[in-house]
Automatic annotation (TrEMBL):
PPR repeats (start-end): 22-56, 84-115, 195-229
PANTHER family: PENTATRICOPEPTIDE REPEAT-CONTAINING PROTEIN, REPEAT-CONTAINING PROTEIN, PUTATIVE-RELATED
NCBIfam families: PPR
Species the sequence originates in: Camellia sinensis (Tea plant)
Protein name according to UniProt: Pentatricopeptide repeat-containing protein
Domain of life of the native organism: Eukaryota
Keyword Glycoprotein found: no
Keyword list, A-Z: Repeat
Length: 302
């Protein structure tokens, strides 16, 4: 039964003829009704089932999760006589995606660990928890989760598939909290997932936390690995150059900025002027300022 019309027609005929749908058919109808937002019909059919299996419970729980009726979904979850990984993962995903249920997600994940002989913590489970870590921006939770992944062997390339957006948010959260070691570890976990945003986030984190030399090393590593630099990259590197008074690198960045056509960007140009001034190279500072006219104030010049 692929269409709602077909499902309703079949269900109507079965009821009219006095036939009781099989568990398989009822499960299909519950899934179909849920897919089209007919949650009350799905619940009614579920309530009328004389026999149910784990798929029946999973289908109706997911139906209520989709409509963000977490209280009803949780009630059904607690009433489920037999739970499998899908049951737990569905409820866990619902908690993580719904504001105000983050504590419930943590408690459920702990419960899953205590029942691991029956419930397998898989890639979906760990990815969902990584999303929760990113949502809450709690480095400690991320560190604990990473330790769990290492302990259980889920940190290998064949293990959990970390969502790139979540990974970048987690790295950024660690950088904001000054957890640079954890940020670096997260960055190098599944490095093939990293994009320009990933590199910029860690470079910026190093620069903002006083690790300017590490920021510069990461910048060169980024270029070596073939990633495209942009205005955010230059802004972080120039910040590091300013703190270190790194004239040579500033000149390199200046050349790249001209090559990439970003010299009109006031934030980048002001950063270049700032570094030249701090390095005592007023001639270069004046030339950059003159090239962009009066778009930025020349605060660094006396």
């Amino acid at each position: 039964m692929r269409s709602l019309k077909e499902g309703l027609k079949f269900h109507g005929r079965a009821m009219k003829a006095g036939f009781t749908p099989t568990i398989f058919t009822s499960n299909q109808l519950i899934t179909l009704y849920s897919k089209h937002g007919l949650i009350e019909d799905a619940q009614k059919l579920f309530d009328e089932m004389l026999e149910r299996n784990v798929f029946s419970w999973n289908a109706i729980i997911w139906a209520h999760i989709q409509t963000q009726n977490l209280s009803h979904a949780q009630s059904l979850f607690e009433s489920t006589p037999e739970k499998d990984s899908v049951t737990y993962n569905s409820m866990l995903s619902g908690f993580v995606k719904t504001d105000g249920y983050e504590t419930h997600a943590l408690e459920l994940f702990l419960k899953m660990q205590s029942t691991r002989d029956w419930v397998k913590i898989d890639d979906f489970t760990l990815t969902t928890m990584l999303n929760l870590t990113a949502k809450l921006c709690v480095p400690l939770l991320g560190r604990q989760l990473q330790s769990f992944m290492v302990k259980t062997g889920n940190d290998s390339n064949g293990g959990v598939v970390v969502d790139l957006v979540s990974k970048n948010v987690m790295v950024a959260a660690c950088c904001r909290e000054g957890e640079l070691e954890m940020a670096r570890n997260l960055f190098w976990t599944r490095p093939e997932l990293n994009d320009t945003v990933s590199w910029n986030t860690l470079i910026s984190g190093y620069a903002q936390n006083g690790y300017e030399e590490e920021a510069i090393k990461m910048f060169y590593c980024m270029l070596t690995n073939g990633f495209q630099r942009n205005e955010h990259t230059f802004a972080s590197v120039l910040s590091a150059c300013s703190s270190l008074k790194h004239l040579k690198l500033c000149k390199e960045v200046h050349a790249w900025v001209l090559k990439d056509g970003m010299s009109s960007n006031p934030f980048i140009s002001s950063g270049i002027v700032d570094v030249y001034c701090k390095c005592g190279n007023m001639k270069y500072a004046e030339s950059v300022h003159a090239a962009i006219g009066m778009k930025i104030p020349f605060r660094s010049l006396p």
